[in-house]
Amino acid sequence: MRLLTHNMLKCHVKNCTDPDKQYPLRFKDVQIEQIEYEPNEEFLVRMLPRIDWSALVKTAKDLNIGIPGSMPEDPASDQDFLQKLHTIIMETHITEGSMVCDGCSHEYKITKGIANMLLAEHEI
């Protein structure tokens, strides 16, 4: 699972009591793998408005990944920034572990790079 995907996931458990803690999901006991991909600058620029930067920074810090604390004024024209962003959101993969909701402590398992976001019937 890429960090770009993680940046868009939140807990949907019915009894999750604190909506402010449903996002971002916290990683637990994860294995990280770097998989190189050809950068697509056009894609990155289109994704910039959709990325929750503060959530990405929090997640990156939790995983000990260096990331700028804020976006540059004109991120689309900052090649160094776009390369770092590409490495973080596209090339960093979580292959095993889980994501935990800080609101209800529900764990979403990650196996072979795929997050299981399915809920049991009583959680829906």
From TrEMBL:
CDD domains in the record: Trm112-like (cd21089)
InterPro entries documented for this protein: Trm112, Trm112-like
GO biological process: rRNA (guanine-N7)-methylation; tRNA methylation
GO molecular function, one term: protein heterodimerization activity
PANTHER family: MULTIFUNCTIONAL METHYLTRANSFERASE SUBUNIT TRM112-LIKE PROTEIN, UPF0315 PROTEIN-RELATED
Family affiliation: Belongs to the TRM112 family.
Name of the featured protein: Trm112p-domain-containing protein
